[in-house]
Design goal:
single chain; about 120 residues; mainly alpha; Ribonuclease iii, N-terminal Endonuclease Domain, Chain A; 6 helices
Length: about 120
């Protein structure tokens, strides 16, 4: 994978990848109503949820040094706008989390992506 892809570009892709994982997971839990799916998904895909999961992954030493570097590079990236629904620190951690998802996907590290997502699903329950 080309390591000089912009961090925010990785986050843009990672946001979509993460959303698909969450939607598949919730559907597998037999949640049938779309409103219920959306309500449950928000717990995972909100900036607060993403930042919380990322901090847990870091504090539990789940991430490799390379993965932490991807997160920090994205987290430290200057943003042009201020988020409306959360504080800037939470937003930056969520961006770092999404960049990690994008990086792993583009690097064809699907097994590692699965491991991280399973970890999140286990602590999210």
């Amino acid at each position: 994978m080309n390591s000089d892809i912009n961090s925010l570009t990785l986050a843009y892709l990672g946001d979509a990848i993460y959303e698909v994982y969450i939607r598949e997971y919730l559907i597998s839990k037999k949640i049938a109503k779309v409103n219920d799916l959306q309500k449950e998904a928000t717990k995972y895909v909100s900036a607060k949820g993403q930042a919380r999961y990322l901090q847990k992954l870091i504090s539990d030493n789940v991430l490799t040094d390379e993965e932490v570097n991807i997160v920090m590079r994205a987290r430290n990236h200057k943003v042009q706008h201020r988020p409306k629904s959360t504080d800037i620190i939470t937003y930056k951690y969520a961006t770092g989390f999404e960049a990690l998802m994008g990086f792993l996907y583009l690097s064809n590290r699907r097994q590692r992506l699965d491991e991280i997502m399973n970890y999140i699903f286990n602590i999210g329950e």
